[in-house]
Amino acid sequence: MDFSSILIDHGFAPDLYDFESTIIGFDYELYSALLTSMTVFDVDRSRIYRQFNIPSAYVRADLVRNKYCIDRAIRFFLQRWKEELRYLDPICEIIEIYESSKSASIHVLSITKSNAITLTISIT
Q1: Total domains present in the chain
Q2: Is 0.85 topped by the overall pTM?
């Protein structure tokens, strides 16, 4: 799905919206929600990147599982998304999940009346 076009369709073009502060905020929020205590991910090997010039994935996280199965890692992400990360009143929210036996890729678009973000989460 073309998240860049959806952002623009909802009025969130780079020249009209300050994505920088949203990207920085989501970087911190992802770290806090996914890479602190009680996580299924290896904190030392997982990384979060700010991608200021990539509208389809303004924030990218490469998450490395500890010893847990891929299904559990996906469930962990979705639980933390629902409880800690998602916008309260999204007018558009799309979560695409691609899964294999050893990895997963999750693409998220979330838009409210005043905010928008795109994320790509890779789990290995």
Answers
A1: 1
A2: yes
